[in-house]
RsmB/NOP family class I SAM-dependent RNA methyltransferase (Nonlabens ponticola), 403 residues
Amino acid sequence: MRFHHNLLQATVDALHQIFNDGKYADQAIQKILKRDTRWGSRDRGFIAETTYDIVRYKRLYAEIASVKEPFKPADLWRMTAVWIVLKGYEIPAWEEYYNTPVRRIKGRFDELSSIRKYRESIPDWMDELCVAELGEELWTAELAALNKQADVVLRTNTLKTDRKTLKEKLQALEIATTTDDRFPDALILEERANVFQTQLFQDGLFEVQDAGSQTIAPYLRVDSGLRVMDSCAGAGGKTLHLAAIMENKGQIIATDIYKNKLHELKRRARRAGAHNIESRHIDSTKVIKKLDGKMDRLLIDAPCSGIGVLRRNPDAKWKLQPEFIEEIKTTQQEILQSYSRVVKSGGSMVYATCSILPSENEGQVEAFLKSEAGSTFTLQESQSLLAHKDGFDGFYMARLLKN
Ligand SMILES: C[S@@+](CC[C@H](N)C(=O)[O-])C[C@H]1O[C@@H](n2cnc3c(N)ncnc32)[C@H](O)[C@@H]1O
């Protein structure tokens, strides 16, 4: 492989922003990619994938390169040298790579590969927490899967097209996709491509949404005439899916505590041709009180640690803190307690997270059912998706019926 200095310089700069300035990986990469309009899709792919790889394996690469945070530019260059050697490529004869100890890098890799926290690059506290919650064997398998690059998955917007037609239209643009019977609206890209630039995306024919995430809206078992609330709607990934399943009929009330996310939801809904969504900003408890006992269905797509989606956000391994997970668990229970009141008798709700930790999932549902607010609900069914078993992001969902 022939390396280009400016592409590795861009990678080093992106890593600097992510590791030293606390920037989110996707945002730092997007910004760096705007630096040179002459870069083609291969160049952009190289910068993005190399940066993500080094973010994913920060702990391992830093240990092998004998560098410590905060990383100096020379340290980051050494980490890219480790990446090149471990990929089996020849080190370019550049000043930054002068005297790279190739054999030593390989030797250190062999030594450290027997220790999970180095091999899979994970902070001690997260490794310990996940072993305690999931057990050694399951966590070892899941962590390895969470370190693999995620597929790009599209959700066909059935308000505008069907999967077969969309597949053909993408094929005409030389974007090849596969299907998976478990996910009826999903198209999985065979090779990564910038689908956001296509006219098909601008026209609202699909959304980019992991296949695991596509199981949540159908789990709520909605149909056309119902009144549905999506309490933690964010920018509306699941809301748009609900609108499509409901064929634009009935009513969806989408709420969130962040106004800007709801603005984005409205923009996406316009593109998708979803007309049955009404967004409400949660700025006081009144918004929920007004809906007391009025909803046929409630989706709580709760804020969570995001440990199930580390494949997409590998920098979360380094940004998450144990205190945050404790705080978010309190929020999850508060959300269950406060929003569940909107479900009418005979209605149902789904509690979902993109976490694989039982304490954020089954544990929250059990605590809710034991509480006063939960005493009128029964657990009908629950499902966990795991990256190493199901091949997509990790999710949990539970459906509860209101007596
Ligand atoms: C997992 S994200 C939702 C993702 C979104 N449903 C989607 O599919 O794109 C959780 C959302 O919960 C919101 N949130 C946090 N606390 C909340 C609360 N008390 N009430 C409503 N939404 C809340 C966050 O702002 C965030 O957008």
Observations:
- Residues 231-238, 255-258, 261, 282, 301, 303, 331, 335 surround S-adenosylmethionine (CB under 6 Å).
